[in-house]
Amino acid sequence: MATNVVKVDRAALKKAGGPMGVNALLTGLRVTSRHFFKNLFGWIVGKPQVFTVMFPEQDIAKPPSFRGMPVLVQMDNGKERCVACGLCEWACPVDCIHIVPGETEDAIERHPKIFDIDMGRCMYCGLCEEACPEEAIVMSSRIEISAFSREGTIWHKSDLLVPVDELPRRLDYVRRGYQR
Questions:
Q1: How far apart are CA 172 and CA 64, in angstroms?
Q2: Diameter of the chain by CA atoms?
Q3: pTM for this one?
Q4: Using alpha carbons only, what angle is made at residue 133 by residues 128 and 135, rounded to the nearest 5 degrees?
Q5: Up-side HSE of residue 106: CA atoms within 13 Å toward CB?
Q6: Helices (H) and strands (E) in the chain, counts
Q7: Exposure of 74 by Cβ count < 10 A (0-12 exposed, 13-18 middle, 19+ buried)?
Q8: Which strand (E) or helix (H) includes residue 157?
């Protein structure tokens, strides 16, 4: 029975300076120096590059493709767009969405009586948004969702409703995805 033996070329390692040798050290110093002097020059000419964001006082501009917390879209009349079809609940790989459908007398015959999302389980994959035929659930740019208890991570329908006027960038991004 033959065994595979791995041989390490020690001479080549010594020639290259070893795995943590001089070449690796010089490469790291070169990168650090380049950024240091570029930023120093920016301070001298009055255009500093500041990479620190004082969160939550300051916020960075997030692109439309950013996937934050999923929210329910609220129509202009104050009702949710959701028709409780359950496709988002079915598409969720971690089963964090729970919907109980209810009947209504409006033009939309069904609506969710209960719509809960367990944010402690949500992995922000966006599959619920892709599965929704009504554009009723979208990924927002909201990321501040901390809680002190496990029960605090469960968001109910009233917490998730966001007016359609606050989501135009994300809805446009989703609609552009349909056209591809």
A1: 8
A2: 82
A3: 0.69
A4: 70
A5: 12
A6: 6, 6
A7: buried
A8: helix 157-160
- Between CA 48 and CA 55 the distance in angstroms is 19
Q: Could you give phi then psi for residue 162, rounded to 5 degrees?
A: -130, 130
Answer whether residue 93 shows pLDDT above 70. Answer: yes
Tell how strand 161-163 and strand 110-118 pair up.
unpaired
Spatial separation of the C-alpha atoms in residues 22 and 24, rounded to whole Å: 6
Domain ranges of the chain: 10-45, 70-178
* pLDDT tens, residue by residue, 34-83: 888 887 877 777 777 767 788 888 888 889 999 999 999 999 988 899 99
Q: Is 159:153 a contact under the CB 8 Å cutoff? A: no
CATH class of 70-178: alpha beta
Structure tokens, 39: 């930023």
Residue where the block lists tokens 């922000």? 124
